[in-house]
Design a protein that fits this description.
Two copies of one chain form a homodimer.
Chain A: H1 9-21, E1 24-25, H2 26-33, H3 37-49, E2 53-60, E3 66-72, E4 78-84, E5 88-94, E6 100-107, H4 114-131, E7 139-146, E8 150-151, E9 156-157, H5 171-176, E10 183-187, H6 188-199, E11 207-212, E12 216-222, E13 225-226, H7 257-261, H8 263-275, H9 280-289, H10 294-302, H11 306-330, E14 334-338, H12 346-359, H13 362-365, E15 369-372, H14 379-392
Parallel strand pairs in A: 4-7, 7-10, 11-14, 14-15
Antiparallel strand pairs in A: 1-3, 2-3, 4-5, 5-6, 8-9, 11-12, 12-13
């Protein structure tokens, strides 16, 4: 599948429009793209000739007439979407409409060298291809999300705090010998933001996806596109100061939201409540598991443990204070919350909301929705697939 | 000058490109816009026919050959740029290349009713037209900046804290009977951001313009355009909390940056230092002027008064802490500082810089420049003119 770079601007805009719409009626496209009918028809003919889109036969259009549908096929191609998280790797082969054709998830650690992990990734891709009875050549593009900062142009990891051995590593190069297709790499929250944009069918243009897990990060969708900032560092919100008298963070500053409300801080606060005698239930869980996880604190909270509840409410309020600042500045339509900590109990999201509505300006919260990410299980792989497609064409 | 709405997308893109470039060689445009030469030439012919652009004769092109230059003329039209600030109104008639043809600035108060002020604005526009020997019909569009939140679609003021009598007032309607042209209204910081974008010739795409005066506000340029957010409230950063143990703000929350570092807070801190005996110099200025202004505190600071210096450094550090958050989130290339407080002394900007570099992530500040706005005296009227042009076409 060569030739993406040879697409004309008109063909590229048309291909994008058909991609986002999943299925497009020929007659709708001219209006949506503000092209003449003859120009659209010429571009459609070219894209069909190149095998990038196909006609899917007559279907009822909104006006009651029958119109020819179009969808992206990439000559019966597949897109590989890879979501590498701190503890798991989720790998999927997707059709160009982001349907999952084959998928595999397995536990990993990103603390070690990246090379063995990418050898395994190659094997899993081959395995998934075999499940579908397909060859490597069927994959048209690969999108990869990683839990650390990425230099987007070079696709290399840039001083990733969770995975120091990945410094300067290029996932693109690691796969290039086996997969001679466009490969793009981005950080996990940008991938989640793209997956959410897909799941919303672009019905929202300006929103944030905030992940609260071992760290805290934010993906920014601005005017329907991922916004990465001038150095690719936009959305790196974990070290925003929410309390100048707060605890010291590993970054050297004080009061970073990550030091106060991410998973390690919640686990630490839980252990302190257990050891101080404040929470017998947390002590029980600590003794049973050897160490406390945020999930343990969430469990105790849902069982009604007051200390656990206070910890979760405090963490939610802290994240909410950081978000109130972002809401005042960015005035998004939605803030989607995800990540391991987001699911430990309803009190967490409730406290975030309370804190944001208390601290943000009335005008900025008039239409603001704060809610869990729509498809948490699929947003990563789908977002990786969307990244692969958008950047390749 | 009717017919902006009848421009085709191609003509609109071409007109925009020629506008931003000030002068464009015909031969450069096809490449920059990715249009075919024949398409460009047809659009140029149409725009010349409509009187929107004109040929300015052969000029040396970069390749040594001679090319026809193009520039926007709007049929020898003028653009009115109006910058209404809390204490002054600055009014200019601009040519389409944003040269100031005539200009008038006078003191006003926005605390009163807006109608008399707009009657005066009409008179000033007529006066400036007479200076140029022109009629009202020569004005093609009007852009207006106001020191309060604007509902951009309706061009009405929305709960403006400085000017309660303007609630729901429409500057557009107030001028429509006398000037039958497109009129657009935006808040002062968005206007300053547009003026700065013009002065930078779009050499930066993602930057912030922060005004520190009676209040604190921020204009956001994202991908070369003003970003207003979903409710037009983006950049309303004055009530970002920088200290949960800080003073109570008039908005009801605590620790808002505006309550700690805007002009009234600096004046208050100066008066306290004067009355406590901490600063004899500030007491002298207080007695001489009846009340202390931020400029008085700046004067004392430049004379070496330690208390005044500490006040200014503290305010700069507070603004810097707020900006560190925005820099982590948005990763801009520049933060431009302006407004009355910005010019009270070099210590203010120095403290902002120190605070941002200490608190922001290394990756986000790698290429970050924090500096005064490039053309403070003209950014408002030029930005208002740019707004008028961009929104009208």
């Amino acid at each position: 599948m060569r030739g993406f770079s040879q697409l004309s601007p008109t063909e590229r805009r048309l291909l994008l429009e058909v991609f986002w719409a999943r299925t497009s009626a020929r007659s709708d496209l001219a209006g949506r793209l503000d092209f003449s009918k003859s120009k659209i028809n010429a571009a459609i003919t070219d894209l069909i000739g190149a095998g990038l889109i196909t006609e899917i036969g007559p279907r009822p259009s909104s006006g009651g007439r029958r119109a020819e549908g179009l969808r992206v096929t990439l000559r019966d191609g597949l897109i590989a979407g890879v979501d590498i998280r701190a503890t798991h790797m989720d790998i999927a082969l997707l059709s160009p409409d982001m349907s999952v054709m084959a998928r595999h998830c397995e536990p990993i650690s990103v603390r070690g060298e990246p090379e063995p992990l990418f050898a395994r990734l190659r094997d899993v891709l081959d395995l998934l291809l075999r499940q579908l009875g397909q060859e490597r050549e069927r994959i048209r593009m690969i999108g990869i999300g990683v839990p650390g900062p990425v230099d987007f142009e070079s696709a290399c990891l840039a001083t990733p705090p969770l995975m120091p051995l990945w410094e300067g590593f290029s996932p693109r190069q690691a796969l290039a010998a086996d997969f001679d297709v466009p490969i793009f790499v981005d950080n996990d929250v940008n991938i989640l933001a793209l997956g959410t944009l897909w799941h919303l069918s672009r019905s929202a243009d300006d929103f944030l996806v905030v992940k609260v897990a071992t760290g805290i990060g934010c993906g920014i969708i601005c005017r329907g596109q991922v916004y990465r900032g001038v150095d690719g560092a936009a959305g790196d919100v974990g070290h925003i100061c929410i309390d100048p008298n707060g605890p010291v963070c590993h970054c050297g500053n004080v009061g970073c939201v990550e030091a106060m409300a991410a998973a390690p801080a919640i686990a630490r606060a839980g252990a302190a409540a257990a050891r101080s005698g404040e929470s017998p239930r947390l002590l029980e869980l600590l003794q049973a598991h050897g160490a406390l996880s945020p999930e343990d604190v969430g469990l105790a909270s849902r069982e009604g443990d007051p200390a656990a509840n206070a910890i979760i409410r405090g963490a939610g309020a802290d994240v909410g204070r950081m978000l109130a600042t972002l809401v005042n500045f960015f005035n998004p339509s939605h803030v989607f919350i995800c990540g391991g900590v987001a699911t430990i109990g309803p009190a967490f999201l409730a406290s975030i909301r309370q804190s944001v509505y208390q601290r943000s300006l009335a005008l900025s919260t008039r239409h603001l929705a704060i809610r869990p990410i729509p498809h948490p299980a699929d947003a990563g792989i789908v977002g990786a697939g969307v990244l692969g497609f958008l950047e390749a064409i």
